[in-house]
Design goal:
Number of helices: 2
Oligomer: single chain
Distance between the termini: 13 Å
CATH architecture: 2-Layer Sandwich
Number of strands: 5
Number of domains: 1
Helix content: 10-25%
Structural class: alpha+beta
Strand content: 25-35%
């Protein structure tokens, strides 16, 4: 039997938890990834960081990584058990063009879900998606 492990931080120390297989194929109702809760986190952080930001192609990579890191930590604080959280962000310059951003995933529609939020100011646009994938 395979074991699963998970690292978390407690009192500034890394604690590694080892889980035995439970053979649970679906999350309980109170253990699901709820897009509304995650969208609130995304919106709050994006508005704080991007409201007055100016597009700079050198700084946007770092900004996209900072957004993902901060949002991922806040989503982890929701303590949604057995969900892997994957983030994708796109930042681009606003120059009067149009853009479509799409994502395709192979997943279980009964257990997996996603949340997304996009915003634009006079200089840049950002689309950020958070995927919650249930680990069986």
């Amino acid at each position: 039997m395979a074991e699963s492990s998970h690292a978390r931080h407690e009192n500034n120390r890394q604690v590694i938890e080892i889980w035995e297989p439970t053979f649970r194929m679906k999350p309980r109702d109170d253990e699901r990834f709820v897009p509304r809760e995650v969208e609130v986190i995304i919106r709050e952080i994006m508005e704080k960081k991007l409201r007055k930001a100016k597009f700079d192609d050198q700084k946007c990579k770092v900004l996209a990584l900072e957004l993902c890191t901060e949002i991922k930590e806040k989503v982890k604080d929701l303590n949604i058990p057995r969900y892997k959280v994957v983030l994708q962000s796109v930042i681009g310059e606003v120059k009067g063009q149009g853009a479509y951003i799409a994502s395709r995933c192979l997943w279980d529609t009964e257990t997996d879900n996603y949340a997304s939020f996009s915003m634009k100011n006079s200089s840049l646009f950002c689309v950020l998606m958070v995927f919650g994938l249930y680990l069986e």
